[in-house]
Amino acid sequence: xxxxxxxxxxxxxxxxxxxxxxxxxxxxxxxxxxxxxxxxxxxxxxxxxxxxxxxxxxxxxxxxxxxxxxxxxxxxxxxxxxxxxxxxxxxxxxxxxxxxxxxxxxxxxxxxxxxxxxxxxxxxxxxxxxxxxxxxxxxxxxxxxxxxxxxxxxxxxxxxxxxxxxxxxxxxxxxxxxxxxxxxxxxxxxxxxxxxxxxxxxxxxxxxxxxxxxxxxxxxxxxxxxxxxxxxxxxxxxxxxxxxxxxxxxxxxxxxxxxxxxxxxxxxxxxxxxxxxxxxxxxxxxxxxxxxxxxxxxxxxxxxxxxxxxxxxxxxxxxxxxxxxxxxxxxxxxxxxxxxxxxxxxxxxxxxxxxxxxxxxxxxxxxxxxxxxxxxxxxxxxxxxxxxxxxxxxxxxxxxxxxxxxxxxxxxxxxxxxxxxxxxxxxxxxxxxxxxxxxxxxxxxxxxxxxxxxxxxxxxxxxxxxxxxxxxxxxxxxxxxxxxxxxxxxxxxxxxxxxxxxxxxxxxxxxxxxxxxxxxxxxxxxxxxxxxxxxxxxxxxxxxxxxxxxxxxxxxxxxxxxxxxxxxxxxxxxxxxxxxxxxxxxxxxxxxxxxxxxxxxxxxxxxxxxxxxxxxxxxxxxxxxxxxxxxxxxxxxxxxxxxxxxxxxxxxxxxxxxxxxxxxxxxxxxxxxxxxxxxxxxxxxxxxxxxxxxxxxxxxxxxxxxxxxxxxxxxxxxxxxxxxxxxxxxxxxxxxxxxxxxxxxxxxxxxxxxxxxxxxxxxxxxxxxxxxxxxxxxxxxxxxxxxxxxxxxxxxxxxxxxxxxxxxxxxxxxxxxxxxxxxxxxxxxxxxxxxxxxxxxxxxxxxxxxxxxxxxxxxxxxxx
Length: 864
Description:
It is an enzyme of class 3 (hydrolase). Its EC number is 3.4.11.2. The chain is of the alpha+beta class and 864 residues long. It folds into six domains: 60-174 and 186-254, tricorn interacting facor f3 domain (Immunoglobulin-like); 264-364, Neutral Protease, domain 2 (Orthogonal Bundle), CATH 1.10.390; 369-500, Orthogonal Bundle (Neutral Protease, domain 2); 507-585, Sandwich (Immunoglobulin-like), CATH 2.60.40; 651-766, no CATH class; 768-864. The chain is built from 26 helices and 31 strands. The strands form eight sheets. Strands 7-6-10-4-3-13-16-15 form an eight-stranded mixed sheet, with no helix packed on it. A five-stranded mixed sheet has the order 18-19-20-22-21. A four-stranded antiparallel sheet has the order 11-12-17-14, with no helix packed on it. The longest helix is centred in the middle third of the chain and has 19 residues, at 398-416. The two termini are 29 Å apart.
């Protein structure tokens, strides 16, 4: 499963600097929280916000019955949005003799239950969620039996549920079932994780079950179908119908069962004689390979890296509308939300490799070996997140991979302000609580530390052993530890205990002193040890002295750690953890000269990026300006982008330049004229579209009419991101309103970035003439794009006469009350906040807040 949002990470978070619940040592040796409350152990203990509230213990599901095989025959009633099903389940007692079978079956009409072999009816009870069947006799663990269940699944009649990670849990979804929306295709698809497969077929909906399966799907002949395993045949039926028979012969967990039905274009490739297919809407057929085309190379790379070939019969990837999360790793058939469906032009700005690698890596970690309980979810999600790193490291190089790793750290640290829990946690309120930045981003970083600790050869040999020992089984964290210990010969209990079974992270503070030919480095662990352990941290300290770098391995294990090193002169630079692999925060004050030295001499992206960000406020000083001028030509694009950002007018201002009579910044020095020339060249020619877009934003900040032609040319750029940046740049200029006729043709562009930029332009400079365009966009856009569009629409409404403004406000009110997508309701609610100077709108907002039933929105509304 992948639900990660794609967002720009702020400098402080991205570098893991000065974040979390950081404490400082007081003179008495106790610790002081940011609020100033003394929290020395045993004295006036204050519980930090991030300490979890008590939650019940969640045991692994007891296996009374072994679900061996599932055979389904399904057809559909589009009008009622029902599935008409026939399920034949092959079962046997797991160990102890059994005379009953208890199945998960949510919201069904049960028509009949019988013993398959004799066709004799079986007695049962059903409460709407659990189907309890009285068997014809007591069976022992060597005896298989089959039950046949006729049922109707009615997903829309289930009580609505979901979470931030998976926004709905009804299992089976009919999209535009009656074809009333001409902008949207008709589709049916399923979503099983966490326990929603039992919303469309009776099963034992637990991750420690493993079953083989067959599915016969009867559907109108114009639709394509996809399921797990291989398509055995397609047979025509009367009245324009067809039955597709899909069979998976290797066992997997019930939550990984899937179907997808729609008028897809299917683009085919192959890998080692296995089908590799991409299911997209027909108009995206020509970009399908642009989206998914690295899949065969990923299959080869991951198979080679893990020493275990991709195990399933085929690999398919399908994109559907109105999906309830980011993507899902169904066995041999991953499913993706529509944000992945891009044109070739959009692919110039956005690679989907991150999410594609994530779901593909799950085919080993999650599907071949499955977490035995949701408590052990990092065995699935941490590995899939680290699969992203491995792919980027292989395909694009270490800098790109390290940037993703650093963003993951920042993402985890943001969550850690409010929540610090063990990675493997047996106490939680809802199993979907496990789908958080701990299980994903923190877990991926922990695996990277483990790799750094044991070395590459041992790391991948251990993963191979873990996969081989546990294939087609369910596992817990100790299976992983034992695999590593057997390969390496090391006791790794300390590592797994502190990183997987304990909460929090180290908060490191460093100081140094050079005296009498000796360098002393003090390393403090400042985390609140009342709730977080003291960590054992095998790391390195890199010291540059007389231009030479020396690395010293050390182990930080106490609150106060003192390390001494020989040094003939004061070092130019000291870097704690030069491999940038540690999960935690590091506070290490450095001079301007040290940061400049760090940019030029540290090898990892994280340290170069950190140096630039910490120097940014001094960018107008000549020696720092020189660093950023060099960074404009850096090989790695993110460093170039950071340098471009630094030269924005809000930062690059000296007293000599001052401001003109209108308050605009003046940059008249010859040196800065050369920088502007270079920025113009970057805006027009940099190979990375995001760097070109950043350069346009920086040039726009100067409010200099000489760049208007650059902004105008950007509207025709091959990149939508650059075109959108050109629009934003024009909107910030003094004569922006004069550009309205020139930008009107962009109204026909079906791209979210350009549409949002155009909406923002009109919100600043438009009039009632653009209202039909806004209304069209509200009908055409979906999901997150629409949610983000609505607040801009509200800003535009402020420019309109009262009748048009009131009409738009009513549209927002209706969406905030009734839209089926909770994110769109949230976007509409936020939009109304922009209009809240009107007392009538204030009353709307109060009523919406009072009548909202979705717990997620109620919590968010309380924060707005």
